[in-house]
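Hi all, long-time lurker, first post. I run a small reading group and we've been trying to get comfortable going from sequence to structure in the token notation. Rather than ask abstract questions, I figured I'd post a concrete chain and ask someone more experienced to write out its structure so we can walk through it together at our next meeting. Sequence below, copied exactly:
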Amino acid sequence: METLSTYTTTANPPGVAAVWAALERVTDPEIPVLSVIDMGIIYNVEISENPVCCTITMTPTFVGCPAVDIIKKSVYDEVLKLGFSIVEVKVDFENTWTSDRMSPEAKIKLEKFGLAPPVIINNNLTEDQLNNVRCPHCGSTDTTLRSAFGSTLCRAIRFCFSCKQGFEQFKPV
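-- Answer (accepted) --
Happy to help. Here is the structure in token form:
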């Protein structure tokens, strides 16, 4: 587990709710319409005393995701603004992230951004789910996979036969 931490000073640290609210302001650098909360990559916030410390634990969407260090630093910077003596951001590679952790609001934001959102898979991805992806431009499911590899690890490239538009899909994992 990787950790980013530093020491500053504070008199009255905020509570856990304030930390979660601050994390809503941290966006994914590859999908700037989504916060780390929308993505479901933050799964634990702990506050301890003497010294006053906030520890945030996150898990990356994909192992090898190039945005992990940027997200970790952004989380650290945003929580540090709250006034903790110590801020630690831990990246947990033991627990696996799944697209089912994304909030329903995140999927709406993805579609408005032009990315087909992942379907809910509940640990059981079917061929039907892979083949019936809705186009974010026109809503048709008359689409096909062009490449399993998009501009980032978490995206695939698809084509819609109805509106004749290419689009990216956030991969269900």
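A couple of things your group might point at:
The longest strand covers residues 42-48.
Confidence is low (pLDDT under 50) at residues 5-10.
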